[in-house]
Amino acid sequence: MAKRKTQKGPSWFEVGLGAFLSVVLGLVLGVAYMVAKPVQAVKEIPKDAPAGAVYYIEGVRDFDKTEDVEDKRKRFLGGDSIEMQEGEVNVLLGNADRPASASKPADKGPPAAPPMFDTGSLNVRIRDGKIQFGAPVNYNVFTVMGAVTVQSSGTFEKRGSEFTFVPDTLYVGGCNLVHIPFAREWVMGRLLFARPIPDDIGAAWSKLIAVSIDGNTLRLRMP
After folding, report:
1. Using N-to-C axis directions, what is the helix angle for 86-97 and 66-77, rounded to 10°?
2. Mean pLDDT, residues 153-164
3. Which architecture does CATH list for 40-46+53-98+115-221?
């Protein structure tokens, strides 16, 4: 009589692995759905805003104070304490984004491949003791192209020898990633603050002894 073949079911390891992969896949799909959720750019939050809606309010740019901003920048680099409104900060950031004039035209060659992530100009909004940073990000990931708004609100705290931005919220599209450490650090470093800070501004910033936001004013205090 032929022996019956016993069929073995999946091991506990295989069951656990399958469950883990299902959770990871669900998490990835959930995050992707929230990131793709539309973010409305508005002047103020609607009074009848639905629960879970995400809005983006851009800070103003005060181009009428360009000369004042340049004066404050020189004073800051020289070691003076300064106070700035959001319109002045945005003018300063806009000037920092301007490319330096080239001494000779660049050599012509084949067009470079588009970057996976391309962050636009950083924008600042200061309200009620909080500072918001926001920027548009174009992405090109595995032939999937699009744009998303990255925004974060928080304050400054001294970490180690320098003051750093500490977020209370960090939205990529409609998804708040502030409580996911790895994702939070990656988004802030690679997307929101992707553009390098000018060396002279960074050197002056490292000398600050106090950074505070009083109402709608950013105060930078030097020794």
Report:
1. 80
2. 95
3. Super Roll (3.15)
